UniProtKB/TrEMBL annotation:
It comes from Roseiflexus castenholzii (strain DSM 13941 / HLO8). It comes from the Bacteria. Residues 150-183, 225-235, 244-274 have a biased composition (Pro residues). This is GerMN domain-containing protein. The chain crosses the membrane at residues 100-121. Keywords: Membrane, Transmembrane, Transmembrane helix. Residues 309-390, 443-528 form the GerMN domain. The lineage of its organism: Bacteria, Bacillati, Chloroflexota, Chloroflexia, Chloroflexales. Residues 135-275 are annotated as: Disordered. Residues 140-149, 212-224 have a biased composition (Low complexity). The keyword Membrane applies.
Length: 545
């Protein structure tokens, strides 16, 4: 009874052990129980096809159908008396493969703990050498700093007659270096003064913002050193010309700390990020032209900040397109929505179902239960609970059921076959659930139900496969269903509708992702032409842009 190929976790969130709901195995086991109703229930369906696959949203129990009356805790008196308890009993329930997996996980955990223990011990024992290492580093820079002023006064004295000015420059350079900056800062600044090249100091000055006040002083002292050397003749005039203003600023080095204030200016707060909007294709349910059936559509809806449930409800309020019936009051407004443990609580400002028609509430439930995190819906109006025949939560109903044999709505005894028929408008297809006795040949039963026709719904939908068509064979290989009909199928009046309803019906099944049609054992291309000989992939159902 699923719609699209499910996405998300590859297992049912309500699957767990009868002893512990939080534990599940990766392979089928009799110890698994279903907790969709809150109590552990036996699982009579194929666990590989439903519980342990992405198809769990198509499980009848997951869709809110009637639960078995016997809970798992009392299903077998012998099991409760003989089953061993505790850790040993739990280990006995594991398969050899699961035991191996748990053993491997424990081994990896022990290895990780050992690695962290060794790393922690090395970190503790290696703290003394690390703290002693900076001592030689801090001693080395003062030696270089004291060595640098020695050559600086002699050339400066030869270059300029008044000696007080050159002496003030070198004294100003070492004094700010060791005081405001850490030990690594002098190591970077000292090499810039040693080469006596202004190009090196100019490259280092702009990089550290906090030390911007200390870096200009070496740049002022550096121009005095190249001038007496006289070796780089072309460079010295340019340096002295550019350095003429800085000596006036060098004595004002103490006032320069205010230059660090501009970076501390208050920053304007960044504007809030705009909400992200993505286009997603969501399932929506509206009414057909007869006012009796639900019509599913897959509409491209803008979703803001991943709020898909809110976007889906707003799309229902927006209303249908292409002649379908509106079921939700267009004046209704969604006040809030909260999802907790599979229950979605939706709060409106007024009853959302138009004219009190319960189909409006069912359309919301059908839409929201397509999401993996929602299995039931609690409706509220301004915080007060409402519902159908009461005020409790509503589970997913059977979509357009066809039950000629009056079978019980019980997933353990009844099979729900998805069949699609063309609506009388000739545009939409409508899904009708044919209820038959439990069978393992679901694909074959679906095709036979489609051939049999819509039954009591003939007033609302059209038969697309000619009466008298026989199913010769059907097989599924690597997700592709090969269906072989008798020659009567080739006499379909609407070829595209016959192919469309067959492909939509079969690709609803979890094992089928494509369909190839044969007639009398030969490709349909030999009867209708080359385009009909291909493998038809899973299509969108009544897509809307």
């Amino acid at each position: 009874m699923s719609e699209p190929t499910p996405t998300g976790p590859g297992y049912c969130p309500y699957l767990g052990l009868k002893q512990n709901r939080a534990i599940r195995f990766s392979s089928p086991t009799p110890e698994h129980r279903c907790y969709v109703s809150g109590e552990p229930v036996d699982i009579p369906v194929d666990q590989s096809a439903f519980c342990l696959s992405r198809n769990h949203v198509q499980c009848p129990l997951y869709m809110g159908l009637t639960l078995p009356s016997i809970p798992a805790t009392v299903s077998s008196s012998g099991a409760t008396t003989t089953a061993p308890g505790g850790l040993r009993g739990w280990l006995r329930t594991l398969s050899p493969r699961d035991r191996a997996i748990y053993a491997l996980m424990l081994g990896m955990l022990a290895l990780i703990v050992l690695v962290y223990a060794i790393a922690g011990w090395q970190a503790l024992t290696g703290t003394a050498p690390v703290t002693g290492a900076p001592s030689p580093i801090t001693v080395a820079p003062p030696e270089t700093a004291t060595a640098t002023p020695a050559p600086l006064p002699s050339p400066s004295a030869t270059a300029t007659p008044p000696p007080p000015t050159p002496t003030a420059l070198p004294t100003s350079t070492p004094s700010p270096q060791p005081n405001p900056s850490p030990t690594q800062e002098p190591v970077i600044i000292v090499p810039t003064a040693l080469p006596t090249q202004p190009t090196g100091t100019a490259g280092v000055a702009p990089s550290p913002t906090d030390n911007a006040t200390a870096t200009p002083s070496p740049t002022v002292a550096a121009p005095a050193t190249p001038s007496p050397t006289g070796q780089p003749a072309p460079a010295s005039p340019t340096l002295t010309a550019t350095a003429a203003p800085p000596p006036t600023t060098a004595p004002t080095a103490p006032p320069q700390p205010p230059t660090a204030v501009p970076p501390a200016m208050p920053r304007t707060p960044a504007p809030p990020a705009a909400p992200t909007v993505q286009q997603q294709r969501l399932w929506l349910y509206f009414g057909d032209a007869t006012g009796t059936l639900f019509v599913p559509v897959q509409r491209l809806v803008p979703v803001e900040d991943r709020k898909v449930a809110t976007a889906a409800i707003n799309a229902l309020i927006e209303g249908p397109r292409n002649g379908l019936e509106r079921l939700i009051d267009p004046q209704a407004r969604l006040l809030s929505i909260a999802i907790n443990n599979g229950l979605a609580t939706v709060n409106f400002d007024r009853p959302p179902h138009l004219n009190g028609d319960p189909r409006g509430l069912h359309s919301i439930v059908l839409t929201l239960t397509h999401f993996e995190t929602i299995s039931r819906v609690q409706f509220q109006v301004n915080g007060r609970n409402i519902g159908i025949d009461g005020s409790g939560p509503i589970g997913r109903p059977v979509v357009n059921p066809l039950n000629p044999n009056n079978l019980p709505v019980d997933y353990a005894a009844t099979e729900f076959l998805p069949t699609y028929y063309l609506a009388n408008d000739g545009y939409h297809t409508i899904r009708i659930i044919r209820m038959v006795p439990k069978t393992r040949q679901v694909a074959e039963g679906t095709v036979r139900a489609l051939i049999e026709g819509p039954g009591i719904y003939e007033y609302a939908v059209q038969r697309t496969i000619p009466p008298g068509t026989e199913l010769r064979a059907i097989s599924i290989n690597q997700g592709v269903a090969r269906v072989d009909f008798s020659a009567r199928f080739a006499e379909a009046s609407d070829r595209n509708a016959a192919v469309r309803t067959l492909v939509e019906s079969l690709t609803t099944l979890p094992r089928v992702s494509g369909v190839q049609i044969l007639v009398e054992g030969r490709s349909l291309a030999e009867w209708w032409g080359e385009p009909y000989g291909r493998v038809y992939p899973k299509p969108l159902i009544n897509p809307e842009g």
